[in-house]
C-alpha cells in the first residue's frame, strides 16, 4: 500500500470494505431490519393514540437508529483483526487515521445510509408531521456519522478482546447520549413549529469535532490493542 497515493489507498480500502459487506449481505441487512422492526413494533406496545405516538416518535426513531448502529459496530475492525489485515494497516506508510476514516465511512455507508433512506417511511408511520420530517432527516445525516465515528474508538479499544460486546456498549453508549438528546429535541421542536437552529448547530459541531478527533483516537487505540 506504500506505493499508492493516499487518495488511492483510501479509495481502495473503502471499496474493499464495501465489497466484503456486499458478499455478506445477510449480515449487512441485520441493522436495517432491527431499525425497522423496533420502530414498527413500538406503537403496538403503547396503543393507537395518535398524539402519544407523535410525541414519542422522534425518540423511537433515534433510539432504534442508535441501537442499530451499535449492533453493527463490532464488525468494523473484527475481520481485519482476525485475518491479520489490521497489522498491515498499522505498518502502512500512510497515516493510519486516514485509513481508519475510510473504514468509518464504509461503516456509515453500510449502516447509517440505509437507516437514513427508510426513516421517512417510519416517520409517517409514527405520525410525525410532514414539516418535521425534513428536520428528522437532517438530524440523521448529521448524527449517524457521529455514531460511527465515536463507535470506532470503542471498537478499536475492544477489538482484541474475545467477548468485547458488553464492554463496547458500556464505553460507547454514554458518548451517544448527547447525540440522542439534541437530535430528538430538534425533531420535537420542529413538530411544534419552533426554529431548530441551536440543536442543528450543536449536532453539526459534534460532527466536525468527531471527524477531527475520532480517527486520531481510533488509530491510537488500535496501536494499544495490537501492542
From TrEMBL:
Membrane-spanning intervals of the chain: 28-46, 52-77, 98-126, 132-159, 166-194, 200-222
Localization in the cell: Cell inner membrane
GO molecular function: heme transmembrane transporter activity
InterPro entries in UniProt: Cyt_c_biogenesis_CcmB, Cyt_c_CcmB_bac
Membrane topology: Multi-pass membrane protein
GO cellular component, one term: plasma membrane
A matching Pfam family: CcmB
Domain of life according to the entry: Bacteria
Keywords annotated in UniProt: Cell inner membrane, Cell membrane, Cytochrome c-type biogenesis, Membrane, Transmembrane, Transmembrane helix, Transport
Swiss-Prot/TrEMBL GO biological process terms: cytochrome c biosynthetic process; cytochrome complex assembly
Signal peptide: none
Function in brief: Required for the export of heme to the periplasm for the biogenesis of c-type cytochromes.
Family indicated by similarity: Belongs to the CcmB/CycW/HelB family.
Name of the featured protein: Heme exporter protein B
Organism: endosymbiont of Riftia pachyptila
Source taxonomy: Bacteria, Pseudomonadati, Pseudomonadota, Gammaproteobacteria, sulfur-oxidizing symbionts
Amino acid at each position: 500500500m506504500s506505493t499508492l497515493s493516499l487518495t488511492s489507498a483510501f479509495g481502495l480500502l473503502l471499496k474493499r470494505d464495501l465489497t466484503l459487506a456486499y458478499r455478506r449481505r445477510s449480515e449487512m441487512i441485520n441493522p436495517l431490519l432491527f431499525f425497522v422492526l423496533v420502530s414498527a413494533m413500538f406503537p403496538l406496545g403503547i396503543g393507537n393514540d395518535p398524539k402519544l405516538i407523535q410525541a414519542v416518535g422522534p425518540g423511537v426513531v433515534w433510539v432504534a437508529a442508535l441501537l442499530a448502529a451499535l449492533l453493527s459496530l463490532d464488525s468494523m475492525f473484527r475481520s481485519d483483526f482476525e485475518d491479520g489485515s489490521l497489522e498491515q494497516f498499522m505498518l502502512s506508510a500512510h497515516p493510519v487515521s486516514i485509513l481508519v476514516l475510510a473504514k468509518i465511512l464504509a461503516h456509515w455507508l453500510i449502516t447509517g445510509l440505509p437507516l437514513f433512506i427508510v426513516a421517512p417511511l417510519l416517520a409517517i408511520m409514527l405520525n410525525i408531521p410532514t414539516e418535521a420530517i425534513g428536520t428528522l432527516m437532517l438530524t440523521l445525516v448529521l448524527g449517524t456519522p457521529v455514531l460511527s465515528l465515536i463507535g470506532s474508538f470503542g471498537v478499536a479499544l475492544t477489538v482484541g478482546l474475545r467477548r468485547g460486546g458488553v464492554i463496547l456498549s458500556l464505553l460507547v453508549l454514554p458518548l451517544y447520549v448527547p447525540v440522542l438528546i439534541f437530535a430528538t429535541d430538534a425533531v420535537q421542536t420542529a413538530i411544534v413549529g419552533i426554529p431548530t437552529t441551536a440543536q442543528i448547530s450543536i449536532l453539526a459541531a459534534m460532527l466536525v469535532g468527531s471527524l477531527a478527533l475520532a480517527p486520531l483516537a481510533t488509530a491510537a487505540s488500535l496501536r494499544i490493542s495490537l501492542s
